[in-house]
Amino acid sequence: MHIAFHAQSHKGLVRQLNEDACLAMPEAGVWAVADGMGGHAAGDVASQMVMDMLKTVVDNAGERISPALLQQALQDANQALVKYSKQQLLGTLAGSTVVVLLIQQQHYHLLWAGDSRCYLLRDNQLIQLSHDHSQVNEMVAQGLLAASEAETHELANVITRAVGVDTELEVAIRSAACRPGDLFLLCTDGLTKELPDHEIHQYLQHDDIADASKALLHSTLVAGAKDNVTSILVKLHNSNNINLNDKTIPLNLKIV
User: Where does the record place the PPM-type phosphatase domain (predicted)?
Assistant: First the structure.
């Protein structure tokens, strides 16, 4: 199996600073996006610290990379951010959402905290693999709010879990089999707040993932891009069914 991917990040049309960050380590089968918490000090520092910690762990692990090691990297990033906030920001929080995708030997492993998302397009069906750690999502789950009202609710931007906010971080994890043709989208809420799922679905059906990725960004900018926008597309191919226009690498990683 081979992997094609495309990553991009844009500050949007309103924000002066890009507080998003992303990581693409295809040789290790690892991709991630992070969103520095809006309204908090040093959000750009927070998101980059999370990416740097993940990169260090992946580099050191080599073929021994595993979901457990990635989870520990996020815990270490959480402790580092809590310490940074206390020492450098006089206790003001610097936090970040995060979503991490690991692909190993026909399986995917997803780790996340916050409202950055991962979608899977399979058999022309778009599935949101992650669930938002947000106030409105909890209200929907409890039957207190209709799902159709969530995006426009006054608490829509209030997240309940993020790296660096509390001394203890609970990381959500999801694992399952993957197969050729699967297309994963990792993105910050700067994209999902502007584009509904049905529009995202439409663009992901494009055969060329670079064109699909650029179309997502363009439509987000057309919609106003009030926040930073970061996305990564990751597509799995059969080794004998590769688009030579895509940037692909062989997937031949060992499971630990």
Answer: 2-236
